[in-house]
Specification:
- The structure holds two protein chains of two kinds.
- Chain A is globular and about 75 Å long.
- Chain A has a two-stranded antiparallel sheet.
- Chain A is built from 13 helices and two strands.
- Chain A is mostly helical.
- In chain A, helix 3 packs across helix 12 and helix 9 packs across helix 10.
- Chain A has one domain: MetI-like (MetI-like fold), CATH 1.10.3720.10.
- By secondary structure, chain B is an all-alpha fold.
- Chain B folds into two domains: 55 residues; 204 residues, MetI-like (MetI-like fold, Orthogonal Bundle).
- Chain B is 76% helix and 0% strand.
- Chain B is built from 14 helices and no strands.
- Chain B starts with a helix and ends in a 7-residue tail after the last helix.
- In chain B, 49% of the residues are buried.
- Classes of the chains: A mainly alpha, B mainly alpha.
- At the A-B interface, helix 1, helix 3, helix 4, helix 5 and helix 6 of A face helix 1, helix 4, helix 5, helix 6 and helix 7 of B.
Chain lengths: 296, 276
Amino acid sequence: MASRGGTARFADRNFPLLLVAPAILILLLVGVFPLAYLVVASFQGITMTDNDKSFQGLVNYIQLFHDPRLWTSLLHTVLFTAIALPLELLLGLALAQLFLDKMPGRSVFVGLLVLPVVVSPIVAGATWSLLLDNRFGPVNQILGWVFGREMPLLWTINPELVYPAIILAEVWQWTPFMFILLLAALASVDRSQMEAAAIDGAGYWRTFFRIVLPAIWPVMAVAVLIRGLDLFRIFDVVWALTQGGPGMRTETISIFTYIKGFQQFEISYTAAVAFLVILLLSGLVMAALRRVELSR
Amino acid sequence: MRGPARRQVRQGLRLMLATAVTLVFLFPIYWLFMISLKTADEIYAYPPRWFPAQLQFGNYAVLFRDGDALTVWNSLVVAGVSTVLAMLLGTLCAYSIARFRTGGDRLSDWILSQRMIPPIAVVFPIFLLYVWLGLVDSFLGVILLYTAFNLPYVIWMMRGYIQDIPKALEESALVDGCTRWEVIWKVVLPMARAGMLATAIFTFVFAWNDFLFALVLTRTEVTTYTVQVTHYFGGQSNFWSKISAMSVLGTLPIFIAVGFMQRYLVRGISLGAVKG
């Protein structure tokens, strides 16, 4: 009897661990094991032609610092993020304000507006390449109507237009994401506080900055975090529109890593790049997660 | 009398602005769907035509005739199986974390951070591992990766949904003589059904919409619809009819699925930050 009771308690204590074990095992298998391999490979000298598995020291890591293409791609990534993220946030906020109060057909509008978010990013990119085609796309056609003359703009080739093109596609797809999150946040702001402020003579902007913004801040921070991290790994839209071109003009860190690893097969160097990216991002994520409230 | 009239004008302007904005955001989707219904002559007409002369589904027929539509089936298999696996393992893990605080905040944070690492950095060593194991271009390999990639999301979301369920129900079931497994099966899962369905649909959408993993890990056997779309790109001769028809085949099911999930959309895409 005593031993049976002991087994039951033992089973009870291990039950929680038993439940998490399979999931954690898979996460370790796919998360940690490759990371370990990445570190090992980054100290070797494997390329497409040379399967050199001897210890090479920090050669690949030193090469990181002498590779302008890497840092340029990192700069492009930061540039995309720095332009698209505020645009999406401000546009999303403006849209949320527009749809905040009751209006006929409001739920239909909102339901339709979120559709871009669930479109596959590669499909979104393909769609925009059709829209932006210099001859058969409607964008140049509409610009032609506006300016009263033909506008055969080469959106995906002209170095001055590739950034606007990619950012346009990106902002189109993800502004609704910001919109729907901020709409939910705005809807839960305490109306009586806003009315009290209005009675006290506070203007629109003053009320917004003193009452509304602090109230929606937690949700806004999460939305910015999610979108910021997504933008840092931007790949699909760029791939569909320019493949990083013209030249390397729109090459982001993800595209750079893909080309190095899967087209040029510089295995060990790519391992070092991937490790650098993981280090950069892990630091960022950890710092950011401590600052936002993700439904604790 | 001036007050109400002014409010009506304001309301009317708001409605017009709302309609205009919605039309602008829907236009790209309209254009994609419309091109898939055009004939080649209409697609390559200059200036571009905004409506096909008549509805015809020839572009879709070509995809089914040539077998290209099979890639949609591949997407369904890898996204479907990986969703079931991730939901099964993830929900159990989430239950343990929600009820027993297994691993504390550290484990939760680690799981969430797993979701945020850039896929390209993860998939590179996975690819090398798969080459070694012979898993490149296999259903097993792709399903395994999607399962692992979606697990953090499932765990995180289901943890939130399970926390919403009152604990007292489980305690009384235990007192009534249910085993721990029976409590999960008979009490927790039925209570969490709506949350599970919503989480499963978003998990499915993430896998279904993925491009990068499929691009790296598939060749010819497991090509998904997203990779197939990019096969039609290329220099001078983009097959617009195929790009658009294939894209619609991949997009329409998602629109329908998400249409049913409207109520859970905000919570689903905000990683639970907005309960909605």
